[in-house]
Amino acid sequence: MLSIKGLEAGYEESMVIRNIDIEVDKNQVICVMGRNGVGKSTLLKTIIGILQSKNGSIHYQDEDITKTRSSIRAQKGIGYVPQGREIFPKMTVYENLLIGLEAGNEKRIDEKIYDYFPILKDFAKRNGGDLSGGQQQQLAIARALVSNPSFLLLDEPTEGIQPNIVQLIQNVIVDIKKTSATSMILVEQNLNFAKSVADYLYVIDHGSVVYKNPIDKVEDEEVYRYLSV
């Protein structure tokens, strides 16, 4: 479904990710782990097209999207939840969700979004900036889901979130896996969370993949070696 070959990207003259190869099948969840600053967010920004790759290729559903604009990639079904949420603080929860609809071909908000995140229905008229961190994360994920993406990029969705919301996000990811054909790449720092939702794990260090394994064959000690400071 998504094939990344020899991907290299960065900022100005600085190369952040180097020679990245990743394969994601239909209805598969891939987790990418690594210390802060190793290139995980850069990888997702390059996949969605916020950053243009310097070398390598990105194929999505057998189509080369390496040079296409981020808006086109979104229309093709790739959703993106950035680190830091980036919701619109002066817009209401409902208006934020409507912005998410514009990324795809859906015309209305599926009620299942509110089944996943009931608080968003209760706070539909509240400004996004007035929500707590956990509520904003729910809104950021819901905003990506309303366009009914076939592929979802999640950048550290549990960062700084209270345990009950982490559990809620875990339940949502597991349900999406069970009830749809949506694939995901999840950037995460919590190995236990990754193992609860992912099918395959990649670890990045200094911009390159240094470890990969199916989730049932992951060796915790090996992964933690690359996560420790």
TrEMBL record:
Coiled coil: none annotated. It holds the Pfam family ABC_tran. Keywords: Amino-acid transport, ATP-binding, Nucleotide-binding, Transport. PROSITE patterns: ABC_TRANSPORTER_2. Transmembrane segments: none annotated. One of its GO terms (molecular function) is ATP binding. It comes from the Bacteria. Residues 2-229 form the ABC transporter domain. The keyword Nucleotide-binding applies. Belongs to the ABC transporter superfamily. This is Urea ABC transporter ATP-binding subunit UrtE. It comes from Gracilibacillus xinjiangensis. The lineage of its organism: Bacteria, Bacillati, Bacillota, Bacilli, Bacillales.
